[in-house]
RNA sequence: GUGGGCGUAGCUCAGUUGGUUAGAGCAUCAGGUUGUGGCCCUGAAGGCCGCGGGUUCAAUUCCCGUCGCUCACC
């Protein structure tokens, strides 16, 4: 019995909609998971998560093990209770920091220099599992090697080999039965390598499967075939998670290929710095043309920010550096994306996904 | 009133021993941002160098006048 059960309720071509059930609750797919790296979605509170209808939030092992420490989080009840969040949680393993922080990587693990105080820290596949068991999220991720793109073939091959070897060790080290463990597929933009990595990961019978190492420098035209090659090898009865992708075009393309869940920092990062996602594309809220606008950010958006606040007000807040500006636009961008996911679920159920996909790509493609 | 200092981009200021299209930071505007190091990167626009006159081949620069701001003294 897998800690995560997954039921596909509807499909439209290769796109699918369903419900994943963990020991503590469910999430509907296709699902967008906002990123709360250090135990908080930046500028938001747990009550905000609830109002937004968020079902699962991502936290980061690397950051939480350094501050406040996984043992502290464990003593305070685990990531969910620690952060006052009653919904579901997933912890990333630290594999992405292999990409973003360029630590020393060897066959046995990764050595990081802390970005907080310069101290040295070691993360192995077993250590990542143990740390994530302490953090206590509903889903934990196996430690992987995420190389940048483009990378030389030997670099991609080595990343796949290490990720595969670490997956075996993570699987063996994982003991908590109330917590799921997802394996991660690597392979860059090489379709054959992607397929191989997916097959080798699948053999280990993880609770779910992630596709990592994409949206790290390649174009969407390079990403799609690599993604498709991996997805073809994955079992249909397990959740499929495309890591780090959250641009609207990427979301609809990936859902169309059969991806079930996503995380992305884009929504909150863009929001913090003044860019809104709208049905007409990206909007620079700070632009002078918004100075005297009484319009909402997006007339089609049902969120509390669009219901209440004008572009002129939001622009003003950004102009004077009020933190509320970042908060409100983060709320909007998350609500807008969650609404898009909900529309995709409905469209799949109605057999109209192709129509929605075309509509989104006409703006965001 | 007398004497000194300062007037250069929206703001704060460099610069010029007189010599190509006068610079920076911030701000503005336009892009970028994808398992977050509380950001960062790229580009653009923007100047009668206070105003008037003089000297000079050439003045933002030197001289005279004038206006404004400022400090000190009376």
Detailed description of the structure:
- The protein has 365 residues and is α/β, with parallel strands linked by helices.
- The chain has helices spanning 46-52, 61-66, 70-75, 79-82, 95-100, 125-135, 153-173, 191-202, 220-231, 248-257, 266-272, 304-308, 311-319, 323-349, 353-364, and strands at 5-12, 15-22, 25-29, 31-34, 56-60, 88-92, 104-105, 110-113, 120-123, 139-141, 180-185, 208-211, 240-242, 261-264, 275-278, 281-284.
- It has an eight-stranded parallel beta sheet.
- Helix 10 (248-257) links the parallel strand 13 and strand 14 (261-264).
- The mean pLDDT is 94.
- The protein binds one RNA strand of 74 nucleotides through helix 5, strand 14 and helix 11.
Q: What form results from the Cα inertia axes?
A: globular
Structural class: alpha/beta
Low-confidence stretches: none
Q: State the strand order across the main sheet.
A: 4-14-13-12-11-10-6-5
Q: Total number of helical segments?
A: 15
Count the strands?
16
- How far is the N terminus from the C terminus? 41 Å
Helix content: 40-55%
Search tags:
365 residues, 8-stranded parallel β-sheet, 16 strands, 42% helix, alpha/beta, 3-stranded antiparallel β-sheet, globular, RNA-binding, single chain
């Amino acid at each position: 019995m897998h800690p995560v059960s997954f039921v596909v309720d509807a499909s439209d071509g290769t796109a699918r909609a369903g419900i994943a059930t963990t020991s503590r609750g469910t999430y509907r797919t296709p699902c967008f998971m906002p990123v709360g790296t250090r135990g908080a979605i930046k500028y938001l509170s747990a009550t905000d998560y609830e109002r937004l209808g968020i079902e699962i939030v991502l936290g980061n092992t690397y950051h939480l093990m350094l501050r406040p420490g996984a043992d502290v989080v464990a003593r305070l009840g685990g990531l969910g209770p620690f952060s006052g969040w009653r919904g579901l949680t997933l912890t990333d393993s630290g594999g992405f920091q292999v990409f973003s922080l360029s630590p020393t990587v060897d066959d046995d693990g990764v050595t990081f220099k802390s970005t907080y105080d310069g101290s040295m820290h070691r993360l192995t596949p077993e250590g990542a599992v143990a740390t994530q068991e302490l953090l206590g999220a509903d889903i934990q991720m196996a430690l992987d090697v995420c190389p940048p793109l483009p990378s030389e073939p030997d670099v991609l091959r080595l990343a796949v080999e290490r990720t595969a070897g670490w997956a075996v060790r993570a699987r063996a080290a994982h003991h908590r039965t109330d917590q799921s463990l997802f394996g991660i597929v690597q392979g860059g933009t090489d379709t054959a390598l992607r397929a191989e990595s997916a097959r080798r990961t699948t053999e280990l019978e993880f609770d779910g499967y992630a596709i990592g190492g994409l949206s790290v420098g390649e174009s969407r035209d390079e990403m799609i075939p690599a993604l498709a090659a991996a997805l073809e090898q994955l079992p249909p009865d397990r959740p499929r998670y495309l890591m780090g992708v959250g641009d609207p075009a990427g979301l609809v393309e990936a859902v169309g290929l059969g991806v079930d869940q996503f995380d992305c920092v884009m929504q909150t990062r863009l929001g913090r710095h003044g860019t809104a996602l709208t049905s007409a594309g990206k909007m620079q809220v700070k632009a002078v043309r918004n100075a005297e606008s009484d319009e909402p950010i997006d007339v089609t958006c049902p969120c509390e920010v669009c219901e209440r606040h004008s572009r002129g007000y939001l622009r003003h807040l950004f102009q004077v550096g009020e933190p509320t500006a970042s908060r409100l636009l983060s709320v909007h961008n998350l609500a807008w994306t969650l609404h898009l996911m909900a529309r995709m679920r409905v469209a799949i159920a109605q057999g109209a996904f192709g129509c929605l996909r075309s509509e989104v790509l006409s703006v965001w493609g």
